[in-house]
Amino acid sequence: MIRVAYSKVINKSDAQDAVQEAWVSILTKQDTLREQSKLYSWAKTITANAAININRQAKRSQGYGWTEAQEEQAQAGYQDEAGLQFEISELLALLDPRSRTMLLYKFYYGFKDQEIADAMNVPLGTVKARIHRSKLQLKKLDKQSDAQGM
């Protein structure tokens, strides 16, 4: 959420304010979320809207003086992030489900290797080896997609 907010605002304190406002909105309106699987997207959208509102308020009250070019640059950063997330999702989809799950646990959710081993009921060495092989495979797939101009 902080990355989304930071890509929309001019300084870090505004980004943190946007995330805080987003959390307030999420917690007060959580009953309006129809599908739990869409929580991540819903939270990102609320955060982006909160950041945009902070920019509007800042322009009016403090005269930040954002130019059109700065606003376009902030919007382009958000679109670049969305493109990168799409590319990562495509690469992860090429992995087998167990390897993909381990990578997500490790790098997206921040689990430690032992926590992953416990959650998946496999030995620690298996987790380490599979994560290492999966990273190598992703690098290889990424190079192939770059070579093909994807």
Care to describe what's here?
- By secondary structure, the chain is an all-alpha fold.
- The protein folds into 2 domains: 1-86, no CATH class; 94-150, Arc Repressor Mutant, subunit A (Orthogonal Bundle).
- The chain contains 7 helices and no strands.
- The chain has helices at 2-8, 12-28, 39-61, 68-93, 97-108, 113-120, 124-147.
- Helix 6 packs across helix 7.
- The chain is globular.
- It starts with a helix and ends with a helix.
- The model has no long low-confidence stretch (mean pLDDT 79).
Keywords, please?
2 domains, RNA_pol_sigma_r3/r4-like, Arc Repressor Mutant, subunit A, 7 helices, transcription, mainly alpha, transcription regulation, RNA_pol_sigma_r2, sigma factor
Topology, element by element:
Layout: H1 2-8, H2 12-28, H3 39-61, H4 68-93, H5 97-108, H6 113-120, H7 124-147
Helix pairs in contact: 1-2, 1-3, 2-3, 5-7, 6-7
Rg is 19 Å
Number of strands: 0
Q: Which residues sit in consecutive blocks of at least 5 with pLDDT less than 50?
A: none
Structural class: mainly alpha
Number of DSSP helical runs: 7
Query: Could you tell me how far the N terminus lies from the C terminus, measured between alpha carbons in angstroms?
Result: 28 Å
User: Portion of residues in helices?
Assistant: over 70%
Domain tally: 2
Largest sheet: none
Mean pLDDT: 79
β-strand amount:
under 5%
- What are the secondary-structure elements, in order, as H or E? HHHHHHH
In one word, what is the shape? globular
Keywords: Sigma factor, Transcription, Transcription regulation
Pfam families: Sigma70_r2, Sigma70_r4_2
Protein name: RNA polymerase sigma factor
InterPro entries: RNA_pol_sigma-70-like (IPR039425), RNA_pol_sigma-70_dom (IPR014284), RNA_pol_sigma70_r2 (IPR007627), RNA_pol_sigma70_r4_t2 (IPR013249), RNA_pol_sigma_r2 (IPR013325), RNA_pol_sigma_r3/r4-like (IPR013324), WH-like_DNA-bd_sf (IPR036388)
